[in-house]
Design a protein that fits this description.
There is one protein chain. The chain is an alpha+beta fold and 418 residues long. The protein folds into three domains: 77 residues, RNA polymerase II/Efflux pump adaptor protein, barrel-sandwich hybrid domain (OB fold (Dihydrolipoamide Acetyltransferase, E2P)); 54 residues, Dihydrolipoamide Transferase, CATH 4.10.320; 218 residues, Chloramphenicol Acetyltransferase. It has eight helices and 19 strands. The strands form five sheets. Strands 9, 12, 15, 16, 17, 18 and 19 form a seven-stranded mixed beta sheet that branches. Strands 1-8-6-3 form a four-stranded antiparallel beta sheet, with no helix packed on it. Strands 5-4-2-7 form a four-stranded antiparallel beta sheet, with no helix packed on it. A hairpin with a 2-residue loop joins strand 18 and strand 19. Helix 6 crosses helix 7 and helix 6 packs across helix 8. It is elongated, with a radius of gyration of 31 Å.
Length: 418
């Protein structure tokens, strides 16, 4: 029997430790090759670590511990393929985690009525519990493999039997009109440590507020043309490329054009120098259960609408599966965040340092607007640009948003690959 060590993998040159956030299996469980074993969290990324072989798992480091890269957190006793068929009659059945309750003595008449011979083939703990309470095992529904009884099934049956035979409770005395001070509602709190990702987010946001001269400017956009374009080509785009046409690809294309017109927003300050990027790596903020992550679409100016949409879908899938790599989060030159998917009407997004600009999208609402001296209802979206005022002046910021507005309201200005 080979013993295989489970080690914490390297997730980046600058990362030396991580949080073992969660085990998917319990100590002693059978695992299959490539089956996820545990979740590893660093200050930048969350990853799932899979089994290198099939066998029996032995856990040596519990969930919640901080571990060094390369540390051994458990072992697998490799025994070949894990059996998936029906368990043998004599094999012990895994028991659900159930808090033990003190045995409740059945009344004499009930005990006499339910006294039965304990059938063979049950796990020892189940046989002992059935015998102690003199139960008829055939009347208890089993939820284990093959319909076998588990300890939890028996405890649930006992609990339900107690409720059905319990005497009716006497009516409680009327409560006083005013609750005495000693009977006030207990105010409870809970405390849990911040995850490495949440700590990193907090540090970066605080750094952005303290180390930049951040300012936000706003504009609104008539989304009628984009909505009509999506409606017109929705089916053909989906059929040809296998992905839906969303708002984000339009805003990425528009942002690239706006960044070309205002290169300061695609730059950053390094000491007493300004570093200008002549490429466009666009970060797209994605909210997940473990925090906000910003995967980067590299050379977005060279990608088609379909390629942009496919890249975004792939990022979301890998985030949900905890398979996003550290290299997917580095090197962005500009960021777009869409609070509209959560219903946000307006916000002031915080810079993703060391970048000098971030574009905030919001929800689309039908609103009255004046067009040709007439009030009409149009689907409108507020957009916000937060920027570092040390490098970007108000003129460039306003110009940037006006360029975004023109591209979205006149999408023929940006090439469509439909």
């Amino acid at each position: 029997m080979a013993i295989i060590e489970i080690k914490v993998p390297s997730v980046g040159e600058s990362i030396t430790e991580a949080l073992l956030a969660q085990w998917f299996k319990k100590d002693g469980d059978a695992v299959r090759k490539d089956e996820p074993l545990f979740v590893l969290e660093t200050d930048k990324v969350t990853l799932e670590v899979t089994a290198e072989a099939s066998g029996s798992l032995s856990i040596t480091v519990p969930a919640g511990a901080t571990v060094k890269i390369g540390a051994v957190v458990g072992t697998i006793s490799a025994t070949g393929a894990v059996e998936t068929g029906r368990p043998r009659q004599q094999a012990p059945v895994p028991q659900p985690t159930v808090l033990e309750k003190p045995p409740v003595a059945a009344s004499a008449p009930a005990a006499a009525e339910e006294a039965r011979t304990v059938p063979e083939g049950l796990p020892p703990s189940v046989r002992r519990l059935v015998g102690e309470h003199r139960l008829d095992a055939s009347r208890i529904r089993g939820t284990g493999p093959g319909g076998r009884l588990t300890k939890g099934d028996v405890l649930l049956y006992i609990e339900q039997s107690e409720k059905s035979t319990a005497p009716a409770a006497e009516p409680a005395p009327a409560a006083p009109a005013v609750c005495p001070p000693c009977e006030t509602v207990k105010e409870e709190i809970s405390r849990k440590p911040m995850t490495p990702i949440r700590r990193r987010i907090a540090e970066r946001l605080l750094k952005a507020r303290q180390n930049t001269a951040m300012l936000t400017t706003f504009n609104d956009i008539d989304m009628s043309a984009v909505i009509e374009l999506r409606k017109r080509y929705k089916e053909s785009f989906q059929k040809k490329y296998g992905v839906s046409l969303g708002f984000m690809s339009f805003f990425i294309k528009a942002s690239v054009e706006a960044l070309r017109a205002t290169p300061e927003i695609n730059a950053y300050i390094d000491g007493s120098d300004i570093i200008y990027h002549h490429y466009y790596h666009i970060g797209v903020a994605v909210g997940s259960e473990r925090g906000l992550v910003v995967p980067v679409i590299r050379h977005a100016d060279q990608l088609s609408f379909a390629e942009l949409e496919k890249t975004i879908v792939d990022f979301v899938a890998r985030i949900n599966q905890n398979r996003l790599g550290l290299n997917d989060l580095e090197g962005g030159t500009f960021t777009i965040t869409n609070g509209g998917v959560f219903g946000s009407l307006l916000s002031t997004p915080i810079l993703n340092t060391p970048q000098s600009g971030i574009l905030g999208m919001h929800r689309v609402d039908p609103r009255p607007v004046a067009i040709n001296n007439q009030v009409v209802i149009r689907p409108m979206m507020y957009v916000a640009l937060s920027y570092d005022h040390r490098i970007v002046d108000g003129r460039e910021a306003v110009t940037f948003l006006k360029h975004i507005k023109e591209c979205i309201e006149n999408p023929e200005r940006i090439m469509m690959e439909i």
